[in-house]
Design a protein that fits this description.
Elements lengths: L7 E4 L12 E4 L15 E4 L8 E4 L2 E5 L4 H14 L9 H6 L5 H4 L4 H7 L5 H8 L3 E5 L5 E5 H4 E3 L2 E2 L6 E8 H4 L2 E7 L9 E7 L5 E6 L6 E5 L5 H9 L12 H22 L1
Parallel strand pairs: 1-3, 2-3
Antiparallel strand pairs: 4-5, 5-10, 6-7, 6-10, 8-9, 11-12, 12-13, 13-14
Helix pairs in contact: 8-9
Length: 274
């Protein structure tokens, strides 16, 4: 789409270039920005010129640059599994990417950071990051930075806690989460529609477990257990999760109901894998 309100475009090369002028907004992949009119935007500041690393692994875990595309993340995860097979949770990366409603063109354009920062409940990269306890590194306009769980970045369906001028620099996935068994299930009203509910689960070698509900709730729901829950305990927790919502892609009661079914299937997948 032609964004007729935009009259200026510049590429950020250094952190100093991230100071926004009136009417400017950050551009990463642009798959959402270019999908509809942006009447309040008069200029784009392109983050891709900063040359951030896309996927970097070390003993602490996996660092994903915010401008890494979905396609490069999937390819990077596949390569990593070949020499870090203990990071078995990486197997859900393609599943999460497939929860993103988009063609291969979108996969090669949309970025991990852009998907998270848009704040949609059905954000596929939000699902992945929350499922693996990823931590966001956020740059502030004054030159400082702070970290917080990605689960806390998205505050509503389409809203985040990021202030104007704040930039998501990277997300870090801890090695402990990567070593866990993980599973993901999703559902949509249409075969190729936006996800109406996505449930993930992971079980650590020590027995503790984490289950998440996204797409069905306005903000990510994270459920933690000291051990693998029984089906009844998990079902009760998922049913009691707050902020199930209704929109044209699904009613709140439907989202709650299918989330319970998906949670049961995720739990069964994890138990079977054990």
């Amino acid at each position: 789409m032609d964004i007729t309100s935009v009259t200026a475009y510049r590429v950020a090369r250094t952190r100093d270039d991230l100071a926004l002028a009136h009417g400017e907004t950050f551009l990463a992949g642009g798959s959402w920005l270019m999908s509809q009119p942006q009447p309040h935007v008069s200029g784009f500041v392109d983050l891709t010129g900063l040359g951030w690393d896309e996927v970097h692994a070390d003993e602490t875990g996996l660092r994903i640059g915010a401008t890494c595309t979905i396609a490069r993340l999937v390819a990077g995860a596949e390569r990593l599994l070949s020499f870090r097979p203990e990071w078995q949770a990486l197997r859900i990366v393609p599943d999460a990417a497939n929860a993103l409603l988009g063609s291969f063109k979108i996969w090669n354009t949309a970025t991990v950071g852009g998907n998270i920062c848009r704040g949609f409940a059905a954000g596929a990269m939000t699902t992945l990051a929350v499922a693996l306890d990823a931590v966001a590194e956020v740059w502030m306009p004054d030159g400082t930075a702070y970290r917080l769980p990605v689960a806390d970045v998205v505050t509503g369906n389409g809203t985040t806690m990021l202030g104007r001028g704040e930039v998501l620099r990277a997300v870090h996935v801890p090695a402990a989460a990567l070593r866990a068994r993980a599973a993901l299930r999703k559902i949509a009203l249409a075969e190729h529609g936006r996800s109406g509910a996505v449930v993930t689960g992971r079980v650590h070698p020590g027995g503790s477990s984490v289950f998440t509900v996204t797409a069905a709730t306005e903000a990510p729901t994270v459920l933690r257990f000291a051990s693998t829950p029984t089906p009844a305990v998990l079902d009760t927790a998922v049913a009691a999760a707050p902020r199930y919502y209704s929109d044209p892609l699904g009613a709140a009661d439907w989202r709650r109901g299918v989330s319970r079914v998906l949670a049961a299937r995720v739990l069964a997948d994890l138990v079977e894998a054990a």
